[in-house]
Amino acid sequence: MDAKLHEVLNGQEQNHLLPFLWMHDNKRAILPELVQQVYDSGARAFCVESRPHNHFCEEEWWGDMDVLLKEARDRDMQVWILDDKHFPTGYANGLIEKKYPERRMAAGGGARGRGGPGPGFSHFAQQPPGGLG
Questions:
Q1: Which of 35, 49, 88, 108 is a Cys-bridge partner for 20, taking CB atoms 3.0 to 4.6 Å apart?
Q2: CATH topology for the 14-99 domain
Q3: Domain boundaries in the chain?
Q4: Quick check: pTM over 0.85?
Q5: pLDDT by residue, tens only, the chain of 133 residues
């Protein structure tokens, strides 16, 4: 029997689903239910998405995280956390912009606005002789 099929039939397969769990302000009471819904879907992990939460990395947000982590631990689930409130990462919830404006990220103009593949922007990997396996 195929090893992967054996894992699935015996409930030993690894988690491959990682849905976002969207965090919102003043919703702490429903967080256990949201984690349960993720668990009931068959996923054994979720990613905390904090963009809608107005208090990212503040006391209220950390309190919500305490609830999520407890609920995940009780169900033996993995938790991944998106590391910032905005793209690109490194925004540090506005701390850099407010406290250290001279350290803000500066974008180069070279490929800015370029859409899609083009000369110098694409690389196609070749399959090695004999295949990948």
A1: 49
A2: Transcription Regulator spoIIAA (3.30.750)
A3: 14-99
A4: no
A5: 688 778 878 877 776 778 999 999 899 999 999 999 999 998 999 999 888 888 888 899 999 999 999 999 999 999 998 866 666 666 667 777 788 777 666 655 544 444 555 555 544 455 566 655 4
